[in-house]
């Protein structure tokens, strides 16, 4: 069952310069993807690619000058882009929940964590008594593996370790039984053991509760290990998407290849990997392929918009040469 | 860590600071010229008379020796005698400090009462109509000179409209002041249960307090807005929004998290606005410590100036310690051993 369907999403930063000229940074350009119940989608790409912006667009958290200029975001069939704040507030924190990076910064420093979690429960059920909300919070903390949750509920955010704070955030995200969970770099800044614990927990919850999840990360290892499907983002476009095994085992977009080639453990995966250079200027994107300036195989065709080539029923790549590349590379 | 130990430690840190400030102003006033002996003896005195007075005041000794005499007196509560009115400086200061504080506290209090909610709302609706209007008026508040504001208010509300009593002190000349307890007529009137005193003191307070509040509110609004904008862009506010919390709940989270820096700022305002209070005291013939200090500076009355500066320093120190204490009490993160 499809939970989330993002179609043709364009999010731009629209400002005026000193001369009152309109300046547009095209940060997301026709982003489309789906998340189904019971699966984890991994969204990867280098810094500035637009991963967080995608999550913020979905959660309705964009602030000026960022603006959704085109496209639709459907959650269980309902378009959230058109929703007013009040309508959106019924969904976010309840049916859709987000866990951010920097877990300590994501907690209100002046509120005890139990109350902080309980307040999310009350926001979505005004009838809920304080006691009931508190016991729900404690239950939720228990479910994410926080030992002695009753006592921990009395802790202040600054008393928590990073891993514990991340668990608290997950407990907060889960309190109203969401059907979709978005995690933006949920493990950056945590040490490796804690990272694995958190991700194992997320995966177990997705399976147990049949949720859909989207994990945003820099870490290809995380994607390979935890995500059913992978979407690779470059300069505001999804350049390749497919089953994780298929994307990692048979990458078709030159950027995906470079990305895989650039992680230390995969150094010898492709020899012609080329990740040098930086992303294009969002104020003046090339008319065709966004990767043209860094691509070792760029050709004249690449000045026109590449097609989203279907390599199988589930694997797509946004490249003129995606289909024929296999022969050349091997 | 208990509160009294925290306080003792803070106050101990303050002693060297006070000694330094005293030394600094002592040297500045002494080196700044002016001849106290001439001031005391008047224009027709002979050189011999002047020498005698100098010897009497210790002015013939070295500056360091003079400073030592002063500071040993000061620790025993002897701040010297005003060379102008011949009264002990400490007596004058103790009598006049509450008079200034009354103006300052009501003014800054009213300014905060208006400024904080306005600043919070301006931050929430930033760049919208409310914010733009607020920014215009707070800019106005910043740019009006205190004396001009005071005079215009007297002109409008006393002279033209006749709504307020004449700006001649802290109580109507027709009313005998109540017995002095705190030296605030408002409070002393309440203590003595004399309603005509309370009423008169209150109506005398209105104009200078409003003037003070206008001057105080502008920076409070600006600062509150900036602090709240900062909180609004924090990750935890974003988490709150992502959790579907209502605008009202989020606004209260923002307000609470803005409070510590706002309170700290208001503390610095209290100390910084003593100067403004002094000017208003002049205009409204208030007769508090600010007016006393300004007069002493103009007349070259060294002991009085010295005492005034010391009182200001002590006041600032007390304000900062109290602010620290408040912050420690409201902040779960604050650490009293710091
Ligand atoms: N106010 C702004 N004006 C113009 N462009 C902006 C503005 N704010 C952000 N951007 C751009 O939006 C793009 C998307 O940023 P986003 O935070 O989504 O990246 P990301 O993929 O999450 O990166 P990271 O991995 O570092 O978190 C970035 O290239 C950034 O430069
Ligand atoms: Mg990001």
CATH architecture of the domain at 90-299 in chain B: Orthogonal Bundle
- What is the subunit arrangement here? heterodimer
Q: Structural class, from helix and strand content of chain B?
A: mainly alpha
Q: What portion of residues of chain A belong to β-strands?
A: 15-25%
List cofactors, ions and other ligands. adenosine-5'-triphosphate, magnesium ion
Order of adjacent strands in the largest pleated sheet of chain A: 6-7-8-3-9-10-12-11
Q: In angstroms, what separates the terminal alpha carbons of chain B? A: 11 Å
Summarize the entry for a quick read:
Chain A folds into two domains: 2-107 and 178-323, P-loop containing nucleotide triphosphate hydrolases (Rossmann fold, 3-Layer(aba) Sandwich), CATH 3.40.50; 111-159, no CATH class. Chain A has eleven helices and twelve strands.
Explain the layout of strands and helices.
The complex is a heterodimer of chains A (330) and B (338).
Chain A: E1 2-16, E2 22-36, E3 40-44, H1 51-59, E4 66-75, E5 78-79, H2 85-91, E6 96-99, H3 113-123, H4 130-143, H5 149-152, H6 162-174, E7 180-184, H7 192-209, E8 212-216, H8 220-226, E9 229-234, E10 237-243, H9 244-249, H10 254-262, E11 308-310, E12 316-318, H11 325-329
Parallel strand pairs in A: 3-8, 3-9, 6-7, 7-8
Antiparallel strand pairs in A: 1-2, 1-4, 4-5, 9-10, 10-12, 11-12
Helix pairs in contact in A: 3-4, 3-6, 4-6, 6-7
Chain B: H1 3-31, H2 36-41, H3 47-57, H4 63-75, H5 89-124, H6 129-143, H7 146-160, H8 185-191, H9 195-232, H10 235-242, H11 247-272, H12 274-283, H13 289-299, H14 302-330
Helix pairs in contact in B: 1-14, 5-6, 5-9, 5-11, 5-14, 6-9, 7-9, 7-12, 8-9, 9-11, 9-12, 11-14, 12-13, 13-14
The complex binds adenosine-5'-triphosphate and magnesium ion.
Residues 51-52, 184 of chain A line the site of magnesium ion.
């Amino acid at each position: 069952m499809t939970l989330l369907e993002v179609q043709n999403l364009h999010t731009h930063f629209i400002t005026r310069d000193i001369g009152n000229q309109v300046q547009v940074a095209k940060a997301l350009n026709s982003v489309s993807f789906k998340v189904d119940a019971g699966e984890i989608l991994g969204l990867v790409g280098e810094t500035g690619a637009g991963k967080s912006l995608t999550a913020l667009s979905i959660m309705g958290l964009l602030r000026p000058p960022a603006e959704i200029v085109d496209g639709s975001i459907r959650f269980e069939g309902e378009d959230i882009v058109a929703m007013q704040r009040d309508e959106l507030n019924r969904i976010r924190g309840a049916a859709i929940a987000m866990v951010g990076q920097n877990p300590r910064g994501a907690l209100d420093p002046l509120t005890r964590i139990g109350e902080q979690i309980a307040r999310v429960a009350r926001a979505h059920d005004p009838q809920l008594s304080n006691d009931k909300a508190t016991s729900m919070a404690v239950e939720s903390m228990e479910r994410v593996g926080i030992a002695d949750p009753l006592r921990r509920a009395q802790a202040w955010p600054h008393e928590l370790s990073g891993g514990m704070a991340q668990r608290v955030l997950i407990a907060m995200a889960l309190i109203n039984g969401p059907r979709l969970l978005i995690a933006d770099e949920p493990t950056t800044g945590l040490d490796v053991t804690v990272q694995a614990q958190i991700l194992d927990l997320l995966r177990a919850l997705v399976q147990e509760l049949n949720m859909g999840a989207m994990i945003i990360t820099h870490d290809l290892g995380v994607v390979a290990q935890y995500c059913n499907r992978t979407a690779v983002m470059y300069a505001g476009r999804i350049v390749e998407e497919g089953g994780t095994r298929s994307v990692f085992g048979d990458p078709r977009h030159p950027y995906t290849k470079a990305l895989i080639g650039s992680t230390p453990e995969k150094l010898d995966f492709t020899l012609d990997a080329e990740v040098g250079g930086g992303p294009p200027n969002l104020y003046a994107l090339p008319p065709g392929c966004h990767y043209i300036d860094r691509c070792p195989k760029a050709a004249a065709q690449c000045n026109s918009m590449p097609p989203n080539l279907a390599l199988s029923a589930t694997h797509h790549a946004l490249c003129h040469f995606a289909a024929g590349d296999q022969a050349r590379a091997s | 860590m208990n509160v009294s130990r925290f306080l003792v430690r803070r106050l101990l840190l303050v002693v060297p600071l006070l000694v330094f400030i005293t030394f600094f102003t002592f040297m500045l006033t002494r080196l700044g010229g002016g001849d106290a002996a001439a001031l005391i003896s008047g224009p027709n005195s002979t050189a011999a008379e002047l020498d005698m007075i100098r010897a009497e005041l210790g002015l013939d000794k070295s500056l360091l020796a003079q400073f030592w005499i002063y500071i040993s007196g000061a620790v025993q509560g002897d701040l010297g005698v005003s060379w102008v009115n011949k009264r002990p400086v400490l007596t004058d200061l103790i009598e006049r400090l509450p008079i200034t504080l009354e103006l300052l506290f009501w003014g800054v209090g009213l300014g905060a009462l208006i400024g904080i909610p306005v600043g919070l709302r301006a931050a929430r609706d930033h760049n919208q109509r409310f914010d733009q209007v607020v920014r215009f008026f707070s800019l106005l508040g910043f740019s009006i000179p205190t004396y001009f504001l005071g005079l215009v208010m007297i002109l409008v509300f006393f002279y033209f409209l006749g709504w307020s009593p004449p700006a001649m002190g802290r109580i109507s000349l027709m009313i005998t002041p109540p017995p002095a307890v705190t030296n605030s007529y408002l409070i002393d009137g309440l203590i003595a249960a004399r309603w005509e005193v309370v009423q008169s003191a209150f109506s005398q307070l209105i104009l200078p307090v409003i003037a003070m509040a206008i001057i105080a509110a502008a920076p409070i609004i600006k600062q509150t807005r900036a602090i709240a904008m900062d909180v609004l862009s924090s990750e935890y506010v974003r988490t709150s929004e992502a959790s579907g919390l209502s605008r009202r709940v989020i606004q209260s989270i923002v307000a609470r998290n803005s409070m510590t820096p706002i309170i700290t700022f208001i503390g610095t305002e209290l100390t910084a606005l003593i100067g403004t209070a002094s000017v208003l005291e002049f205009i409204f013939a208030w007769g508090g410590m600010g007016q006393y200090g300004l007069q002493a500076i103009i007349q070259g009355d060294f002991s009085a100036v010295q005492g005034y500066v010391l009182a200001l320093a002590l006041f600032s120190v007390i304000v900062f310690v109290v602010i620290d204490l408040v912050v420690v009490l409201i902040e779960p993160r604050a650490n009293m051993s710091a």
